[in-house]
TrEMBL record:
Keywords: Acetylation, Cell junction, Cell projection, Coated pit, Cytoplasm, Cytoplasmic vesicle, Cytoskeleton, Endocytosis, Endosome, Membrane, Phagocytosis, Synapse, Synaptosome. It comes from Rousettus aegyptiacus. It is found in: Cell projection, Phagocytic cup; Cell projection, Podosome; Cell projection, Uropodium; Cytoplasm, Cytoskeleton, Microtubule organizing center, Centrosome, Centriole. Residues 365-471 form the PH domain. It is a peripheral membrane protein. Residues 499-590 form the GED domain. This is Dynamin-2. One of its GO terms (biological process) is phagocytosis.
Length: 716
């Protein structure tokens, strides 16, 4: 019984389950009292999901019945009890059919004097009807929640199934239509990603046109700034050029040929960053093509051919774009236009020498703001910490936060340079360092400050900003040694004036060239590569696809995609059908109201005193707090049942444990144990108020019904 209670308790923990208390009359009357400390206390207490079923009514001793139980008087349940008569083993062996058994059950209830008045509420058909009614009520109550859940699932599938709704595999034009739609959608997606008007905006990272824009206006200028000449190197080269042009002669005037030689050498240096810019754009376009081709994954061969054709075209345009850029640089190199309106000319070169030696940036101009982490602070001093950095033309400051109210430190940019720092083994940060060329501490006792960013792109962007502020990368050690040797060369005052003049002229003209290249590079790449690629996808891609392979082979679906489409369509139609079925359920179904609650105080009063719910021999001593449950008729008017609450208001005195002579009603009481009935009659307990009739049956009862719930039955 304990295992049964545990299993029943596990099942009844589900809120949508119903429990049937099935038992023989003897077990119901004697054993159910043991359940309040078990599963009965969990789900029979409220009674909303418990229905009592009494079996073996036809096997009770003559003169006894379970009327009090079936009338819900002994152990009340909110939904009551239903009695049934099952086939016996003899009926089963005799192959008695179900119809005959139901007829015999009906006859039993109609002919039994204790059950005939409730025969319409007894029997297996009534139990079946009751259970069906409960199931119907439960379905009606669950329909709104189920309908809402199905509708939400259907809405989530609507968008995905939209392209499959009109799918017909037997349509001969299906593959052609699908190919045209796929190519057109591919072109639209590519253009939207480049122009920045896509319907699915990525909020996590830059992509497509935004990254290309960043290459044009941030990465390419950074590469140009990296190529800027060092002041000492430039002066040395100019002095060599002047001396080589003069030869054995001593020059009286500053030669313009030295200016042209130096300028052409600086223009040649523009080729490397320009070609690198093209490579970065090509790499980004390849990424965009792969992203756009993801929608073609339903047709693997079509996706493969599309990527191959478009990528091949981009590579072809890459070659032409690089040729055009190199042509632009060669054009700039072929003729030095000293009459340019922005060129300072020889007349103004010496007057502006003092100004051009200084940074042309406005002192208070903010070049960049952003978060950086100082990576090399020791753990004793707090460890790595993130600050808000502000870079101007003259200093680098960092604050506690972006409000810029609490300044932590301000570092002048004089004599500072940048060097790369290798990424740590366990670190996901990208680091670069700032140090002083005069071997001075940069911040407190640190010779260099290691600044960490989340990505390499952020590092490159910050380096570009530092270069704009005049903080250059560290030169190689070999170059520094060579430069130190050459710097020992001294110049006479006249040569020094000539070098200064040409240096200013070169600086002015190279600035003009850089401005022109920075303007023409994005235009050239957009025209020769990106716009041509968009036109190719819209006008020529379909023809290349038709010529590259057979249409049937291109439009072969992958097995996974076909299975996914079938599953999605099946789920979609199943959801619609389920909603239609729910909508067609008749609202005229009779719904029985929930029975009123019963008095369950006896459960609460006896739950702490009930013995362990096991089958054990009956004790002659009644549990404390409950009178002997002995029922029987009394002479005169019929007895009224004692209310449940009244039973708890008094306690019966203990009955002696010695056995007495057998009661005269022992043969008629199927629930009593004759050797354990006390020898003296039970008297009314002193705690019973006056006027309450005795519950002990007289000598000659008209219908003896003696039920002792705490005693085991002889039938058990």
């Amino acid at each position: 019984m304990r295992e049964t209670r545990v299993q029943a308790g596990d099942i009844m923990t589900y809120p949508r389950s119903y429990g049937l208390e099935v038992g023989a009359p003897s077990w119901t009357c004697g054993g159910l009292r043991l359940l309040p400390c078990g599963t009965f206390d969990l789900w029979a207490l409220s009674g909303l999901r418990t229905i009592g079923v009494i079996t073996k009514l036809d096997l009770m001793d003559e003169g006894t019945d379970a009327r009090d139980v079936l009338e819900n008087k002994l152990l009340p349940l909110r939904r009551g009890y239903i009695g049934v008569v099952n086939r016996s083993q003899k009926d089963i062996e005799g192959k008695k059919d179900i119809r005959a058994a139901l007829a015999a059950e009906r006859k039993f209830f109609l002919s039994h004097p204790a059950y005939r008045h409730m025969a319409d509420r007894m029997g297996t058909p009534h139990l079946q009807k009751t259970l069906n009614q409960q199931l119907t009520n439960h379905i009606r109550e669950s329909l709104p929640t189920l309908r809402s859940k199905l509708q939400s699932q259907l809405l989530s599938l609507e968008k995905e199934v939209e392209e499959y709704k009109n799918f017909r595999p037997d349509d001969p034009t299906r593959k052609t239509k699908a190919l045209l739609q796929m190519v057109q959608q591919f072109g639209v997606d590519f253009e939207k990603r480049i122009e920045g008007s896509g319907d699915q905006v990525d909020t996590l990272e830059l992509s497509g046109g935004a990254r290309i824009n960043r290459i044009f206006h941030e990465r390419f200028p950074f590469e140009l700034v990296k190529m800027e000449f060092d002041e000492k190197d430039l002066r040395r080269e100019i002095s060599y050029a002047i001396k080589n042009i003069h030869g054995v002669r001593t020059g009286l005037f500053t030669p313009d040929m030295a200016f042209e030689a130096i300028v052409k050498k600086q223009i040649v240096k523009l080729k490397e960053p320009s070609l690198k810019c093209v490579d970065l754009v090509v790499s980004e376009l390849a990424t965009v093509i792969k992203k756009c081709a993801e929608k073609l994954s339903s047709y693997p061969r079509l996706r493969e051919e599309t990527e191959r054709i478009v990528t091949t075209y981009i590579r072809e345009r890459e070659g032409r774009t690089k040729d055009q850029i190199l042509l632009l640089i060669d054009i700039e190199q072929s003729y030095i236009n000293t009459n340019h309106e922005d060129f300072i000319g020889f007349a103004n070169a010496q007057q502006r020498s003092s100004q051009l030696n200084k940074k042309r940036a406005i002192p208070n101009q903010v070049i960049r703001r952003g978060w950086l982490t100082i990576n090399n602070i020791s753990l004793m001093k707090g460890g790595s910490k993130e600050y808000w950095f502000v870079l101007t033309a003259e200093s680098l400051s960092w604050y506690k936060d972006e409000e810029e109210k609490e300044k932590k430190y301000m570092l002048p940019l004089d004599n500072l340079k940048i060097r790369d720092v290798e990424k740590g083994f366990m670190s996901n940060k990208h680091v670069f360092a700032i140090f002083n060329t005069e071997q001075r501490n940069v911040y407190k006792d640190l010779r260099q400050i290691e600044l960490a960013c989340d990505s390499q792109e952020d590092v490159d962007s910050w380096k570009a900003s530092f270069l704009r502020a005049g903080v250059y990368p560290e030169k190689d050690q070999a170059e520094n040694e060579d430069g130190a040797q050459e710097n020992t060369f001294s110049m006479d005052p006249q040569l020094e004036r000539q070098v200064e003049t040409i240096r200013n002229l070169v600086d002015s003209y190279v600035a003009i060239i850089n401005k022109s290249i920075r303007d023409l590079m994005p235009k050239t790449i957009m025209h020769l590569m990106i716009n041509n690629t968009k036109a190719f996808i819209h006008h020529e891609l379909l023809a290349y696809l038709y010529s590259s392979a057979d249409q049937s082979s291109l439009m072969e679906e992958s097995a996974d995609q076909a299975q996914r489409r079938d599953d999605m369509l099946r789920m979609y139609h199943a959801l619609k059908e389920a909603l239609n079925i729910i909508g067609d359920i008749s609202t005229s179904t009779v719904s029985t109201p929930v029975p009123p609650p019963v008095d369950d105080t006896w459960l609460q009063n006896t739950s702490s005193h009930s013995p362990t719910p096991q089958r054990r021999p009956m004790s002659s001593v009644h549990p404390p707090g409950r009178p002997p449950a002995v029922r029987g008729p009394t002479p005169g008017p019929p007895l009224m049942p004692v209310p449940v609450g009244a039973a708890a208001s008094f306690s019966a005195p203990p009955i002696p444990s010695r056995p007495g002579p057998q009661s005269m009603f022992a043969n008629n009481d199927p629930f009593s144990a004759p050797p354990q009935i006390p020898s003296r009659p039970v008297r009314i307990p002193p705690g019973i108020p006056p006027g309450v009739p005795s519950r002990r049956p007289p000598a000659a009862p008209s219908r003896p019904t003696i039920i002792r719930p705490a005693e085991p039955s002889l039938l058990d």
